[in-house]
Amino acid sequence: MSDLNGEREMKQFSAADLRKICLEAGADDAGFVNIDREALQKEREGILKVYPLTRSIISVIKVMNRENIQSPARYVANDEYHSVGDEFAGICRGILRRFNKLGIRGVVPTKSWPMDLHRWPGKIWDISHKILATEAGLGQMGMNRILLHPKYGAFIQLNSILINAGLDEYSQPLTESPCIKCHLCAAVCPTGAISKDEPFDFSACSTHCYRDNMIGFQKWIETIISSKDFADYRLRFNDSETAFLWQSLMFGMSYRCGYCVGVCPSGEELKELYLQNKAAYIQQVLKPLQERAEPVYVKSGLRAESAAKRNPQKQFKSV
Hints:
Elements: E1 12-13, H1 15-25, E2 29-34, H2 44-50, E3 56-63, H3 66-70, H4 74-101, E4 106-107, H5 129-135, E5 140-141, E6 147-148, E7 156-163, E8 166-167, H6 184-188, H7 202-209, H8 214-226, H9 230-236, H10 239-251, H11 259-262, H12 268-276, H13 278-290, E9 294-298, H14 303-310, E10 314-318
Parallel strand pairs: 1-8, 9-10
Antiparallel strand pairs: 2-3, 3-7, 4-7, 5-6
Helix pairs in contact: 1-4, 12-13
């Protein structure tokens, strides 16, 4: 397909110059992937659906404050996710505006929500930021299925910028994973979704962590419609759960967990702190999350139910 700026279509731009623009605009790292890369075979259709003129993808990251994400006060962690996400969206749009001045056009997709709910409950996203970031050399997937950056570890957010320009060079995946195989993410996971012996259980993770997302919201609507009266409703949704949904609608979705990010000691700085005193790290970072009293939402009869019941601080709730 021809670009409307056809005379610029075959021009190559300097990856080093574009990376400098990304960092000056506020991104904390950036990498570059060609749309024709073999590893993107399954992702190409979705990328081109969002922007048919895509020739290159710039994967960018923004670092979060790790102490916020580690806090047992989960509303503090949630606010960090949303606040950094809003800031990051503006940064990515600022980057693209600077690219526009160079003659590069493109699209900044959403980093997460909103997505294409016409396809619900199937795959509702087109851009797999983790896959693109891996190909762009910004990290590798850890046991927790979170992209781990070699410097910043798990405390990052991802986005991708699709552009119509070719670059003089492209990034390559890391040859070594930042994951240090500490298994703290498995130890803290309240649903057993993360295990050193079993594959990652996405269903168990999403059932609990995204309780106040689309699945929980649908269940809430069904409960309102089917309840005989308010007393019947309260048997299925207590006041706290109703308040959580209100808060998610008003201030941004409440993530029920995220502990696997909070305890992860990967990345240059945090890795050294962990290795110097593992016992202190476990006591200060892992234990407050592991021992936090809270409901854990799981599907009855599955591995997640057994995991939730093993922790006396967690209240098992079947959904």
